[in-house]
């Protein structure tokens, strides 16, 4: 055991210290962000340096169907080689025994990264930055709802019962009393996060009924995406302990705000160690404006990745705390691109477009890719917006099919993310969209059945 446990992060070593490790969960994110993999006895894990999974895990839709995303030479289901990244090893503290989780990276038989593995897509984009002498830094914000258990999909989702015995109240943003309503769940979230070695920057009540936000400390994009990937599972497990569900749907409850994954961006010049967005006198640099321009120009095509489901587009509604356009402004939460108040060293750009339902690796990768294109092409943004951006027209797709059309035409974005990823992603998402179009909704039955 010592040969591999010595490579573990301190939190993982502390977790198993004095205990017999029972099991290791060898996991990888698929396109939706679901953890796929194998659970193996710790003794077996100690003897293996890799394991195999078929590449078809990346061809599955969210419903479990396959679409036609297999390789151009047919549905062969080739085995991938999955190798552990020991820096990601962390506890699974909700299990009944002593279990660790380890994220793996996917390679083909020649040792090349599988191009449509989400973690590999993000690594590819980050490397493009590093090749330019830049180190991208991100800080994600995670919004989610705690809701009553819902075992019948035909029924609407309802807020959970709080500690007081009353349903969670809406429109109580930043209320500490509202946060206290979920105290037992939040306590477990903190305990699980501490056992896993994750640092929470803060938890707040958001505007929706039972809606919370967790902020993470800024850092390396891959590390932060790993944490969001882990946090989604952690939060779900904490909720289940208290007879409720945690959901990361973009719009789970009608007439309530949706859930976003806001992404804060800054870039470090590796030669100087300084923020690329701030000049010697503390002013905003050309790179700062170039990055914003890249978001404005390319996010409409990237939206298909940041808003990956039909439900995602229900979030972009006026006056419901979600943007409807890609205007940019300083300290203005009505715009899709916001520049928060900060000093020169911490100057950053916030992308408010991404939904919490997106795969964190892919959402961060696309956001960085759009900014990268603006940087390398020296693009210039539109003028800063002043006022209420909800009073203007929307300039992002409102329908998933339109977003996919824009994504398919975005050759420059494909080259940054990887053409093979773009091909597979588009086929999987179109299969999901076409399946959704076969479903007749209650609204259609209620209003069309006897009236048209």
TrEMBL record:
Gene3D superfamilies: Glutamine synthetase, N-terminal domain, Glutamine synthetase/guanido kinase, catalytic domain. The keyword Ligase applies. Residues 118-452 form the GS catalytic domain. One of its GO terms (biological process) is glutamine biosynthetic process. The keyword Magnesium applies. SUPFAM superfamilies: Glutamine synthetase, N-terminal domain (SSF54368), Glutamine synthetase/guanido kinase (SSF55931). GO terms for molecular function: glutamine synthetase activity. Keywords: Ligase, Magnesium. InterPro entries: Gln_synt_N_sf, Gln_synth/guanido_kin_cat_dom, Gln_synth_cat_dom, Gln_synth_gly_rich_site. Its cofactor is Mg(2+). Belongs to the glutamine synthetase family. This is L-glutamine synthetase.
């Amino acid at each position: 055991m010592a040969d591999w446990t010595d490579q573990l992060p301190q939190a993982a070593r502390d977790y198993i210290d004095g205990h017999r490790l029972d099991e290791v969960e060898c996991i990888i994110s698929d396109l939706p962000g679901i953890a796929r993999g194998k659970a193996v006895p710790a003794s077996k894990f100690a003897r293996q340096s890799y394991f195999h999974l078929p590449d078809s895990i990346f061809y599955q839709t969210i419903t479990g169907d396959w679409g036609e995303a297999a390789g151009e030479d047919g549905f062969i289901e080739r085995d991938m080689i999955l190798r552990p990244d020991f820096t990601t090893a962390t506890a699974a503290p909700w299990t009944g025994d002593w279990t660790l989780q380890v994220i793996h990276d996917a390679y083909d038989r020649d040792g090349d990264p599988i191009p449509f593995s989400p973690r590999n897509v993000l690594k590819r984009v980050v490397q493009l930055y590093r090749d330019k002498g830049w180190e991208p830094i991100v800080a994600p914000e995670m919004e989610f709802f705690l809701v009553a258990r819902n075992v019948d999909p035909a029924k609407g989702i309802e807020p959970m019962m709080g500690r007081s015995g009353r349903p969670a109240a809406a429109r109580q943003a930043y209320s500490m009393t509202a946060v206290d309503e979920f105290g037992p769940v939040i306590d477990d979230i903190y305990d699980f996060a501490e056992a896993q070695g994750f640092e929470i920057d803060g938890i707040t009540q958001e505007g929706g009924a039972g809606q919370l936000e967790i902020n993470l400390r800024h850092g390396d994009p891959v590390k932060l995406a790993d944490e969001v990937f882990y946090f989604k599972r952690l939060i779900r497990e904490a909720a289940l302990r208290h007879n409720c569900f945690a959901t990361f749907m973009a719009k789970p409850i009608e007439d309530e705000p949706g859930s976003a994954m806001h992404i804060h961006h800054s870039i470090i010049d590796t030669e100087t160690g300084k923020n690329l967005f701030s000049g010697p006198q503390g002013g905003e640099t050309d790179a700062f404006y170039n990055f914003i321009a890249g978001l404005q120009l390319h996010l409409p095509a990237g939206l298909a990745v940041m808003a990956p489901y039909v439900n995602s587009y229900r979030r972009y509604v006026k006056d419901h705390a979600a943007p409807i356009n890609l205007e940019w402004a300083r300290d203005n939460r009505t715009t899709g691109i916001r520049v928060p108040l900060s000093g020169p060293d911490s100057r950053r750009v916030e992308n408010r477009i991404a939904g919490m339902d997106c795969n964190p690796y892919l959402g961060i990768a696309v956001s960085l890719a759009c900014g990268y294109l603006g940087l390398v092409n020296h693009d210039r943004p539109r003028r800063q917006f002043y006022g209420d951006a909800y009073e203007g027209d929307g300039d992002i797709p409102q329908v998933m099919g339109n977003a996919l059309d824009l994504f398919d035409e975005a050759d420059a974005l494909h080259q940054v993310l990887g053409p093979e990823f773009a091909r597979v992603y588009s086929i999987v998402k179109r299969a999901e969209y076409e399946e959704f179009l076969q479903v007749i909704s209650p609204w259609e039955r209620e209003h069309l059945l006897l009236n048209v």
